[in-house]
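Question (not urgent): is this output format expected?
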Amino acid sequence: MYKVLTLNNISVAGLEKLPRETYEIASEIQHPDAILLRSFKMHDMEIPPSLKAIGRAGTGVNNIPVDKMSEQGIVVFNAPGANANAVKELVLAGMLMACRNIGPAWDFARGLEGSDDEISKAVEAGKKNYGGFELPGKTLGVVGLGAIGRSVANMAEDLGMNVIGFDPGLTVEGAWQISSTVKQASSFDAMLPEVDFITFHVPLIDVTKNMLNADRVKMMKKGAVVLNFARNGILDEQAIVDSLQADKLYGYVCDFPSNLLKEVKGVMTLPHLGASTKDAEDNCAIMVAENVRDYLENGNIKFSVNFPEVYMPRAEGTRITIANSNEPNMVSQISTKLADAGLNIVDMVNKSKGDLAYTLVDVNNDVPEDVVNAIHDIKGILSVRILD
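Got this back:
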């Protein structure tokens, strides 16, 4: 029986992917094999020695001490792309709110008083203050071309916009999913003078903190619109406010309200609605539950933020999963320990990701505990599991 600890409310659609006859799931449980969570902050949490996997039902993992988990051989999963449509739709809504002045216009209309005739006259007199512009022919810059960024880029092209993308980490597989007419920016700075809108879809890490700052805002077109539905801290809010007040920027739409942004003309903030749809919550929970289950039962890894993607069909016999630091001669040492115990390797796969590596080995017989201990004693081994 696998034990799963939930630190937030997880969609039932996801939990149903974990069969009750083999999984015990609770918000309070001893010795969990896995943790499922959404926004719970784990940094100060005592990590149970039994823990093997963490599943984040979402994309960002800032609330998880990933480095600490890696040191213990604990695989951290997320759900990239499961909420892409929800965020894409909100980016579209943000662009429309900005270019058509929907927020201020709505406030104006809600504040009208008098008879219907008086309101009608006030509407005709006041609407000139909220005239805007249309999206076709405008240029959108997309920073970060992961699942969400790609979805946003393709949507904008369908709307008749020109699109420029920037992502130095774009994979070949990711590039195939982007419209061939999306231009690739040579650098973030090179993109800025060309865009009428710019939207960010990157994680908050050292290199992305305040990446749009005062100096870079000066490089942008007068009248550009900035959108941030990624993470608070990616943009220098003070620089954005100063540029709006100087009529350099036309608008700023984001998912992260703050005191600084209150009552600033041209700013529209939303209460972190990016992935707040039932559809997105279901999709994220289903994806992460399925991948955590496959890891616990078969040792396969898909959509992990710290370990490489590894898949191997099950063979007859016993499966061994091994997480280790990415060092030379590890596979040879593991193979030697198995050979010394008279175990024949039926199948094996080894892959690495940065400083970490992961190995799946199927052997022909049961693996004695002393062999497990011998493998675990190899310098650089982080965790060893036996799957019958």
